[in-house]
Design goal:
alpha/beta; Rossmann fold; eight-stranded mixed beta sheet
Length: about 210
């Protein structure tokens, strides 16, 4: 089963599959991660938020309820169908990270660009290229928040991998903060990192 078919088949029960208080790799602290991003975001009537890999909308639905204008991109049409149920007036695009941004977004500046549990599909060089493409899409005080499976160091990643070896997905490109923050800085991109759970963290990047 390819990745698109996997996520299409997962869409109808994705929320239930994570559970209310997931433990261990890969979703430990999932809702704490989402709530942490929500708490960082200030909403006004004009706030525009782009969610990359919006999935079923678990991250953005609270921001939507608070009045933000939500734009969501996901490569799974069935995930988008689920997100539309939570956010009927949001704007959605079926698109992958490997494709060019929808042309309709060319002239829009976003106060926040957010993503949860999606960037690990990209290698580190591709992550950097993509982030560089995102920075000009921010408003002057705009912020990018990337939440994902992430570890303080390679050593922490290896410990988690050993502990959950039977569930580990070797096809993904998980973050290690010490390396990635340095990699961003080498590309003249400043960032902050917060470890939220044993296997998840949040990167904050400003224009």
């Amino acid at each position: 089963m390819n990745r698109l078919d996997l996520f299409d088949s997962w869409a109808s029960f994705y929320d239930q599959s994570i559970g209310r208080n997931p433990q261990g790799y890969p979703f430990e602290g999932y809702y704490t991660v989402l709530n942490t991003i929500n708490d960082k975001i200030n909403i006004s009537k004009s706030t525009k938020i782009l969610d990359l890999g919006i999935g079923t909308g678990l991250l953005t639905m609270e921001l939507y309820k608070r009045g933000a204008k939500i734009y969501g991109i996901d490569f799974s049409e069935k995930m988008i169908i689920e997100a539309k149920k939570k956010m009927p007036t949001a704007t959605f695009y079926c698109n992958s990270f490997e494709e060019e941004f929808p042309s309709e977004l060319n002239d829009i500046k976003f106060d926040y660009i957010i993503s949860s549990y999606a960037f690990h599909h990209l290698s580190s060089p591709k992550k950097i290229v993509f982030i560089k493409q995102l920075l000009p899409k921010l408003t002057e005080l705009g912020v990018i928040y990337i939440a994902d499976v992430s570890f303080e160091s390679k050593s922490d990643l290896e410990k988690c991998k050993t502990k959950f070896i039977n569930d580990w997905d070797n096809t993904e490109f998980y973050f290690t903060a010490d390396e990635f923050v340095a990699y961003l800085l080498k590309n003249n991109i400043k960032s902050k990192y917060s470890q939220i759970s044993s296997c998840a963290g949040i990167y904050e990047i400003k224009s």
